[in-house]
Design goal:
With 132 residues, the protein is mostly beta strands. It has two helices and six strands; from the N terminus they run ββββαββα. The protein has helices at 86-93, 127-130; strands spanning 11-13, 20-22, 62-69, 74-81, 106-107, 110-111. A two-stranded antiparallel sheet has the order 1-2. Strands 3-4 form a two-stranded antiparallel ribbon.
């Protein structure tokens, strides 16, 4: 009689009489429930070091900024990373104002360099004052 697997995705190898039933899909390696030198754990890069799982970079510090459209008096407060350039902030700000790129961005009357961070543009972090 032939071997039959309860798994419909299984397939056989061999002659069908003394064949081996294999489950389809990757072989998952489970460590033994006790310390053992015979268990090989050299199966590649661990997931926490795999760059394909990287979704971003940690920021040194985040801060809240308020962006005001002086023409319409609309304002939005967003959280930004301290190491983000104004271009990166602008790209995220488009969801609030699709025309934001055509405006001149200023702080205290001074034009801001969009390739620099807020700090590099002389915009100091006023977190303590902002939360008061």
């Amino acid at each position: 009689e032939r071997l039959r697997s309860p798994d419909p995705d299984a397939h056989r190898s061999g002659n069908g009489l003394r064949g081996t039933v294999h489950a389809a899909g990757p072989l998952h390696t489970h460590p033994p429930p006790y310390p053992s030198t015979s268990w090989g754990n050299d199966f590649g890069t661990p997931w926490w070091k795999d760059e394909s799982y990287c979704i971003g970079h940690l920021s040194i510090k985040t801060r809240q900024i308020r962006i005001i459209n002086t023409l319409t008096s609309q304002e939005h407060t967003i959280e930004v990373c301290s190491d983000e350039t104004l271009e990166e902030i602008l790209n995220r700000f488009y969801k609030y104002n699709k025309h934001a790129g055509s405006y001149t961005w200023k702080y205290n009357g001074k034009n801001l360099d969009m390739t620099k961070t807020l700090e590099q543009n002389g915009v100091k972090d006023e977190d303590e004052e902002f939360y008061e």
